[in-house]
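Structure request: Glycosyl transferase, Dactylosporangium darangshiense.
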Amino acid sequence: MRFGHFDDERREYVIDRPDTPLPWINYLGTEAYFGIISNTAGGYSFYRDARLRRLTRYRYNNAPFDFGGRYLYLRDPGTGEFWSPTWQPTQPELDEYECRHGMSYTQIASSYRNIRARVSYFVPLGETLEVWRLRLTNERAEAAELSVFSSVEFCLWDAQDDATNFQRNFSTGQVEVVDGVIYHKTEYRERRDHFAYFACSEPLAGFDTARESFLGPYRSWDRPIAVERGSSSDSVAHGWQPHGSHHVRIALQPGETREIGFVLGYWENPRDAKFDPPGSQTINKHMVRPVIARWLRQDTVDEGFRALREHWDNLLGGLQVSTPDGETDRMVNIWNAYQNMVTFNMSRSTSFYESGIGRGMGFRDSNQDLLGFVHMIPERAKERILDIAATQLATGGAYHQYQPLTKRGNNDIGSGFNDDPLWLILGVAAYLKETGDTSILEALVPYDNDPGTEQPLYDHLQRSLRYTLDRLGPHGLPLIGRADWNDCLNLNCFSETPGEPFQTTENATGGVAESVFIAGQFVLAARELAGIAALVGRPGQEYLDAAEKMSGTIAEHGWDGAWFRRAYDFHGNVVGSASNDEGQIFIEPQGMCVMGGVGVEDGTAATALASVRERLATPHGIILQQPAYSSYRVELGEISSYPPGYKENAGIFCHTNPWLMIAEAIVGNGDAAFDYYKRINPAAREAISEVHRCEPYVYAQMIAGRDAPTHGEAKNSWLTGTAAWNYAAITQWILGIRPELTGLRVAPVIPADWPGFTAVRRFRGATYRIEVRRGDERSLTVDGVAVSPDAVLPLAQAGTDVEVILTVS
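Returned structure:
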């Protein structure tokens, strides 16, 4: 069952009914000001940090599910009837409805009682504000008078404090209304340097800034008293809940169209800004007034929207493909690349499933996100790498997360996830392969953001590798610490007495539990670091030796006969073995070990991949492990707390699926690699949206496994490493357009029934026009000159076009 369709020409997903199985969201903003917005205008906005600079309020896990947003109300004074053109929150029986989610913008259109409305939302480039444009058309035979009410619920800056500290917050809310602009200045009294504002392009018939005055006692957003009676009360909030609402009255002749603009924004005065008069608690508005006036003009909005579209034309132009599979083209050319950008901006912090409070930017997560983003804006990728590295500890370890506003490690989460440091090597390698910019390796970066501890980034990479070598367990495998990639596999948990609460060893970061997954990751990272060393003329043989030694350890202690084992727990018991009654085979080491090259030459890799297909593959994707854990096991920790088939307990954790796609490509099995790709491709799952439930245009973190009653149902869409890894799997390994340290390689491993494909790839300033076609013999020509089909393409001069023709058998 479909709830919409793709409009590839406009790069939009068109939702044609508002009651989607779950809120289907989009993101506004690309730089510093961001927001999430659902297909019925739900969501919220923030500046840089969803916890520390929250602008508007949203209520997660509420009923209705999508609660709080950028709401507008229309009222017909002749009948007293009112409705929301975005469906929520009044949920009228609209005559027509359409939501278009595009690249960093959303447009929601509807018709009701012959009044047509279209609301556009976007964040202009270079600004810390969002624009709402309401376009109204009277399709009645007679003139229509209408009242328009806007509505936002201001938050109190720190979203955690806003959700908990009511005894204080109900007494601190302050606003000013000057020339029709509502200024929310709750924190201004204390800091006097930042505030939010909400403005309207039309003369006001009234306003409200106190939520209870707008809604009325014991009422909700579906029937605000101000809208019901048709007039605002000009309320000014003093404590309680600051709110922003404008009331505009307009008259439309038959066929007439009018536009009304709204601007919601954030402003931060320079630290040395002068206050007039000195010490005044009145907001210093002179700097922001021209900005507001400019973005309330229709011509400015037109130009801003055009610039946003051009911005995405350029970003998406870095790689465009034409293959025999339209759903592949749709994801590679538009939606997967777009999701990569959003995930790069947000890490795992802000979505319909992440509140923006509990998680900041992930060390592991952000490094992986680079894989899908670095080719679009390399300079931002470089900045992110240096931010991440500055949170690394002097031991080589890492804070698992850091706050985007402060760029400091999150002590609430702490460190001890022993896979984290190795991801920095893989992230830097991705940047170097794309750009060739070796200067980043000499950039001075502190440890733990501590001034005076600066060392070249290359030193951070060396310490990342040393962190693993300094923490090897009884079998010579890396210690898992609190967890490795699978945060819920907590093998340093144990119970002294059956039935008693579990304990942890050294806060679960020490102990003797070992990870085969980290061992495979170490082999991959050590080989990458050896390549980087060779690129810059440094010694790197020790890294290759360490990789070879770890490969041998995996072969001795990590191989189970038909697949790679997962780990050893605190007691030294094997996890992920045929000898276990449950959890016999896990997906993660099968993918990571093969990506590291373990077992590729001796055939064990092919055996492991065959076991995955036999034991773990389902029509909805590859499940994480089998059999599922049927009861809680204290020695395994959180993984067994989930019911069978969900999340880490035998769910389809989509993040790991592309590792198997890459592994199959490495061993030359294009049919299997593409088969796995199609199983979780959201565009290919659009026809089963009533089962999948999440958005059909972006990847989800998890799909319920075959042990679950809801097999095939997705959760946790948008912010997931699935996006970057699937992009890498399809573009770099299946299509085979792969950046390497010395240049660009074209080495596709495509399905047997494909006649070929074409692609345009920008790389280090040049544009490569690539054609892959079937033939009797493999051959490669570059600008008409034959070269070895196994060669890395010669680096071209920036600004030039390169014609590449590869024939594959």
